[in-house]
Amino acid sequence: MFIGGAWREASDGRTIDVLNPATEEVVAQVPNASDADLDDALAAAAAGFAIWRRTTPTERAEVLDRAGRLLLDRLSDIATILTEEQGKPIAEAEAEVRQSAEYFSWFAGEAVRSYGRLLPSAPGRRSWVERRPIGPVAAFTAWNFPASLPARKLAPAVAYGCSIIVCPAIEAPRTAAALIRALADAGVPDGVVNLITGDPPRVSERLIGSDVIAKITLTGSVPVGQSLVRLSAERLQPLTLELGGHAPVLVFDDLNEDQLGRAADALVRAKFRNAGQVCISPSRIFVQRAVFDHFVSLVVDRAQGLEIGPLANARRREAVAALVEGSEAKIHCGGVHPEGRGFFYPPTVLTDVPADAAVLRDEPFGPIMPILPFGEIEDGLAQANAVPYGLAAYVFTSDLERADTTVAMLEAGMIGVNEVALAAAGSPFGGVKLSGYGREGGTESLEAYTVATAVTTRGAP
Fold this sequence. Notes:
Layout: E1 2-3, E2 6-7, E3 15-20, E4 25-31, H1 35-52, H2 57-73, H3 75-86, H4 90-110, E5 117-119, E6 125-133, E7 137-140, H5 148-159, E8 164-167, H6 174-185, E9 193-195, H7 200-208, E10 215-219, H8 222-232, E11 239-242, E12 247-251, H9 257-272, E13 282-288, H10 289-303, H11 314-327, E14 330-333, E15 348-351, H12 358-361, E16 368-374, H13 377-384, E17 389-390, E18 392-396, H14 400-409, E19 414-417, E20 432-433, E21 436-437, H15 445-449, E22 450-458
Parallel strand pairs: 7-8, 7-10, 8-9, 10-11, 12-13, 12-18, 13-16, 15-16, 18-19
Antiparallel strand pairs: 1-2, 3-4, 5-6, 6-22, 11-21, 14-15, 17-20
Helix pairs in contact: 1-7, 2-4, 2-6, 3-4, 4-5, 9-10
């Protein structure tokens, strides 16, 4: 753990095993924080905030810029750690580390642009609004993107003058430690960034129950998000919640043969990236009837024999298998996990999926691609919006009017038209409905990590 500028073990010596999901072997042990450790982290964050809030935006920008360059210098080593503890292929791991560096460098630029505004007033009287850092942040991240998720929280917190305690998922904590090390080596003062590993319910209860924490941010599941909302009710800390999704895709019949092929390429690539463990993964594919059969054949041709990494843990593989087996759908490929060690599950394409199947209702978070037909645009939209999630949605069409109509009616925080790459440092990330609220990334992060303070003065009483 990293507390108050020092790396340390748990005060009572307890540890948590970290497994390699490809081999099921223990590859590391990390501290299991005691209550005393958590209290030390809170004290460190309070002290760090007192220092960091008084630094200039330029100083913060310089630290973030150096940290981003350090991540790129250490890219190969960090990507190796990421793959070992999380399981995604090394090329995907390297891309994630680059994206994390992009968050640091982009928010280095934003640190000097945390503008307020001047309000019109009478002579001898001045009124303005300034953005002040919200205070110490408790950040909880999931295991599916162990570099970019902490980076998305660390970068704006540091840019806008907050201190932060990062609590990474215990399945993949060492990647987050590499980001913290880069910030420390870049010159961030002691206590500004802190890293805790430990039992998630106990850690969250201790941190959120403290008077120190002024802001909570979570990337995780709906039940965990609901739990943090309840914990925050006593002290009314504001939350940013990104709680996953069940992204629909609408593929229209105006696409020609080449366009259908490119759409199939994009969706197979996006769906099976990180073994489907992506919150914005296209997970319900609705295809207009005129091109349905052909599109299914294009997808199956690309998915068969595709090699992907393992799922994160045995629980995830069991959940994915249960969704497939319980769907009573037609399985075109995949559907049975291989023998041997590792939490692998093959790319699985389903059709003839019953409308009440759990795979269409529950976020699959795995390599399952159900494909269903639809008729008119109203039918496709009704199916797309028929779940309580609203994080991402996708549209594939060559008709601009159809694209505009569809985008206007989709219930999602992020929408891609003929595009599946939605996450970027300069773009707000977040959803609606059970996918959570608040945004991280982009200039919208200013609202998440600062408070608007109105000041009015006169020259004399």
